[in-house]
Amino acid sequence: MTSPxxxxxxxRDLVLEREIDVPVELVWKAWTIPEHLRQWFAxxxxxxxxxxxxxxxxxxxxxxxxSPDGQEYxxxxxxxxxxxxxxxxxxxxxxxxxxxxAEPFFTxxxxxxxxxxxxxxxxxxxxxxxxxxxxxxxxxxHDGWGTVLTQMVEYIKVGGVRP
Length: 163
Description:
26% of the residues lie in helices and 39% in strands.
């Protein structure tokens, strides 16, 4: 079964694309194993204080992000698609078990493609309307997601994720 192609709507979606110098297998592990995700997923000096995931459609990703001043921000997302080594789709519009969220904001599509020993990496943030997209952009989507991608690559390169 082939996953549907995500058509970008520039009025409602934000996109980050990069070619990264680490293999797709290690990128997949960094995104799908909680102890790895905790190491890089918050832009420093923020941190992830707890993380658990149920890696299957309908499963939940739960994590707590801590600000430098100690404020904690719990997050719950639901996996919509899990295609090993190729794509993850998560949304905060749903919680685990496809239960509706009280405060939906966006859906994240993460696409990974092998390019030799490198990975083509694409993150798409899909929003319900232009206002939500603009808010996410003003919150620093490109800087924040770009920073954590750089942190992930550095974490992998120092041996944080092993084959």
